[in-house]
Target: Endonuclease/exonuclease/phosphatase
Amino acid sequence: MLPYKKIIHQLSVTFQPLLETLNSERRVFVGRYRRFPVAYTALSYLFVSMAFCYYPIVNHWLSGFIMMSLPLAILLGLAACIYLFCQQQKMIATAGIIWVLFSFVVVKRLVGIQDGDRDLSQAQTLNVLSFNSETFPVTGRSKIDASLLKADIACFQEYSPNAQLERQYTDKLLKLTCFDEDREIGLALFSKYPIVNQYSRIWNREKAPNINGFLCADIAYGADTIRVVNVHLWSMGVRTEQALKALKAGHLGRFSLELLDTFQRMKEGFEHRSEQLQEVESYVAGSRYPVIICGDFNETPISYSYGKLSQNFRNAFEEAGQGLGFTLNRHPYCVRIDQQFFSADWHIKTCQTLSGVSFSDHFPVLAQYVLKKSLVVPTDVLAQHQPTRPAAN
Model:
């Protein structure tokens, strides 16, 4: 017998018991799956949805729907575990319960726990505001109360020029497009500290206003430079209230059409936001400056964008918020789609949703940061070297 054939023969003899054991276990699993197909499918779906949320390596639009359904998958998985326990399938049921418990690592994203990193009461803080202002609609008032939107750095989405607000800041970065004949709309970043470098982009959108994009500003803060990114990812324009109205009126045909339209808009949104996030990440990945990313992400914490950023950044509300912090001031209300993320260079002190500011269809998000370096290095001196400002892209 040739030498390589002897080796193959020896390996087959050595691993034959293992292969027989695996084949036997496969037959047992298949047999049990056939006995309890619904329960096993529910646990498998929980595993897949949890895996996508925890490590979102697949950016296909279908994964967006799978991640969004995680709460339902947890309930179905828990019910499957209880059922399997009753059927004396204790091993699989126990494994399922363990996986249900692991899923709460992701569910934690939905709730803010205000514990803070350490005692930062005496540290110098940087207040960062993020707000989709819906072009500052006026409801019974001639002017907004600009003092409610005062911070060290303020990032606005769907912003239209407002002199009263802009007077509160010393430096600004704007990227606006024509919304109609007499109004501009877009992104704005205002700062009480000098903006020393800037990048910007508005994504083109056919048959719709070009309001989605990002601003990236390098800002001289104390003896350092920080990078702040204002993001407005693809807006879906989902009209859930239209579907509910049709259902209440008994118009099932109209209700079905609205659901189909909602599905198409969400699918399109998942596709475009994953592409847009990749471009945003190119400006912050490996940044030598401390980074803060904030804005309207148009996705919940159980989503591709949130999970992808969570791999390298921490979420401000998740770390230092309180309660659920819903940021949408319209139907369906119970979602948090406005976020702030920060790099490991920062301590987070507080993060809150300003639900008292209600003139927009979003609520502002205000967070307080402490630069870790500032706890060692004084921050009362501006950066000695400030690069020349290039024009915005």
